[in-house]
Amino acid sequence: RTHRFEMGVSSTSAITTGAKGRKTVSYTGTITGWRLVSDTSTTMVLDIWKANGSIPTVANTITAAAKPSLTAAQIAGSTTLTGWTTSVADGDVFIVNVDSNNNATYFSLEIEILLNN
Q1: Parallel/antiparallel/unpaired status of strands 87-88 and 92-101
Q2: Banded pLDDT at 117 (limits 50, 70, 90)
Q3: Residue 67 in contact with residue 99, Cβ under 8 Å?
Q4: 13 pairs with which residues across the strands?
Q5: Which residues pair with 18 in a beta bridge?
Q6: Contacts with 1 (C-beta within 8 Å, 6 or more apart), sequence order
Q7: pTM of the model
Q8: How far from chain centre, in Å, is Cα 67?
Q9: How buried is residue 70: exposed, middle or buried, by Cβ count under 10 Å (0-12/13-18/19+)?
Q10: Three-state secondary structure string covering 17-82
Q11: Other C-beta atoms within 10 Å of 109: how many?
């Protein structure tokens, strides 16, 4: 069974860099992909941080060099997670960090997780 969770960020002007949305999960599984949608064509790079039972920092990045991104686009996604830490545990806290963004005032990042039964 697959579960998706979403982290969205909205602003009245172009979204600035830095840590944004937070999400805690109460299940275990494996990340199998991501989808990113913005309100306008933009060039954006996101990082995902994850720690169990604590607030993650950049030291807890799970994306390696395969960060979710848009390049002059509104929609992108991938199931190629080269170098990612894909395991998910009950109590994991996720933060989305905006590394760069040139236009978007809204984005939604969806993480797809294959749940353990």
Answers
A1: unpaired
A2: confident
A3: yes
A4: none
A5: 98
A6: 114, 115, 117
A7: 0.95
A8: 8
A9: buried
A10: CEEEEEEECCCCEEEEEEEEEEEEEEEEEEEEEEEECCCCCHHHECCCCCCCEEEEEEEEEECCCC
A11: 24
Q: How do strand 29-52 and strand 92-101 relate by DSSP bridges?
A: antiparallel
**Spatial separation of the C-alpha atoms in residues 63 and 81, rounded to whole Å:** 7
User: Can you tell me the distance from the alpha carbon of 88 to that of 29, in angstroms, rounded to the nearest whole number?
Assistant: 5
* Look-up of token digits 């579960």: 3
Contact indicator for 109, 49 with CB cutoff of 8 Å: no
32-54 tens-digit pLDDT: 999 999 999 999 999 999 999 99
What the block records as the tokens of 115 is 């749940």
Instruction: Specify the residue for token string 């809204």.
Output: 106
> 90, 80, 81: which is closest to 29 by C-alpha?
90
In the chain, the amino acid numbered 116 is: N
Tokens of 90: 């009950």
Structure tokens at 70: 């848009």
